[in-house]
């Protein structure tokens, strides 16, 4: 993982180390897929939009204590590891319809949580 862009914190957040970097972050939600996939204590992390997806995968690998994990977006495909997390969030993040997007729940409206859902598995799960 690139130490200039991200470092894990005690609460599970991936946090920038260089204060000159942008504060713009996205929330990544890790969801286990498959029977023997280890569960995480911290399932949500904040990641800089400019970080590469490989940084997210490296962090996840360390958390599940595996040399390699299989990761998927939309329960179907693995994006390029060179892709920026911010772009993946814009394209595939839940609730990515914009700042003003709301969800109704029994007549009351509340703002949707926007996050990038990353399914992970110890074995190949799809395809």
TrEMBL record:
Keyword Cell membrane: no
Family: Belongs to the ATG12 family.
Name of the protein in question: Ubiquitin-like protein ATG12
Keyword Transmembrane helix: no
Keywords, alphabetical: Autophagy, Isopeptide bond, Ubl conjugation pathway
GO molecular function, one term: Atg8-family ligase activity
SUPFAM superfamilies: Ubiquitin-like
Region Disordered: start-end pairs: 1-20
């Amino acid at each position: 993982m690139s130490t200039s862009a991200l470092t894990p914190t005690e609460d599970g957040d991936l946090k920038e180390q260089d204060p000159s970097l942008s504060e713009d972050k996205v929330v990544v939600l890790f969801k286990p897929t498959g029977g023997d996939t280890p569960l995480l204590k911290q399932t949500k992390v904040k990641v800089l939009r400019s970080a590469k997806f490989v940084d997210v995968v490296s962090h996840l690998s360390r958390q599940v204590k595996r040399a390699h994990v299989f990761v998927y977006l939309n329960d179907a495909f693995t994006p390029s590891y060179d892709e920026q997390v911010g772009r993946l969030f814009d394209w595939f993040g839940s609730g990515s319809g914009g700042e003003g997007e709301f969800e109704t729940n029994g007549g009351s409206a509340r703002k949707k949580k926007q996050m990038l859902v990353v399914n992970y598995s110890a074995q190949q799960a799809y395809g």
